[in-house]
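Justification of resources, computational component.

The compute hours requested in this renewal are based largely on the per-chain cost of generating structure records like the one below. Each record pairs the submitted sequence with a full structure-token output. That output is archived, and it is also reused by downstream analysis tasks.
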Amino acid sequence: MLCDVCSAREAVVYQRHSGRALCFKCFREDLLRRVSAEVRYYRLFTPNDRILIAVSGGKDSFVLLDLIKDIHRSELIGIAIIDEGIEGYDRLSQAKWAIDMAEKFGMEVYITSFKDSIGFTLTELIEMAEKRGIRITPCTLCGIIKRRILNRLARHEHFDRVITAHNLNDEVQTIVMDILRLDLARLVQLHPLSPLLSSNFVRRVKPLRRIFEYEVTQYAFLSGFKFQEEDCPYIKALPSLRARIRSRMFEMEGIKPSYPLNIIEWHDRVVKKILSRWDLKMPELPLCPLCGEPMSYGRKYCALCELLMKLGVSAPQAGHKAKV
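The structure output for this chain reads:
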């Protein structure tokens, strides 16, 4: 079967949501066009911005880095690799391809870890939680710490944006979670035009937020990306709400392939109206007295310090270390 766009090359990808069969060249051009359009429409970053790309070593970060290097100057790109310290799981080996790509195109490389940043590995923290009977999913704990490390690293190294590889399915899962929790504030904050509530935050943006997960997987496979042979051992432990929603989403996407795109378009449209009609100017977020980072209104300590104290850490580290 020939490509529906160029009619010159063999089709290798079937886009379920568009009904088109595409060759790899036209498929890649389609992804680049959509990512570039998202960046321009919401001004996710400008041509002169220094951007820090969070790299996990998986397919999503591979696709993000491979596309972004074609639409932004390499000398303005840095990559951040965070070693969670998960027993039996080698993050740095998984991300070696990213280090090689960064060196090839002249990008800055930052490598840090949970141990360097907060004094404990994720495995140690999970064991501490289990001993104290604190029920928290490893994914939730990991997410809180990673966001803190990325923001601190970007701020200290003077980056203008933090770029993450969340795809369309990831974003829709978060939208559904916030709806189920009746959390309007988080729904608003998820929008690319949401207000930045602290001068200590570096804006975090998601150029792949309209790219389907199946497209990310197919692009990585067709590009010769070597998929991880082992998953994070915590991925099946204490299944999170996100994991349950993700499972349901795949079922619904099989029935109506375009439905994730419909949901994010609805979200963007509704929140854009809210942002244009309401005066959402909020005061600067207060700073945590322990670590000096922004915390939510009405809290005594930030979520991370509060959690660490529950785990028995009396003086959470506020330092920042990164190897370049």
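Strands lie at 13-15, 20-22, 51-55, 77-83, 108-113, 161-163, 204-205. The chain has one domain: 40-310.
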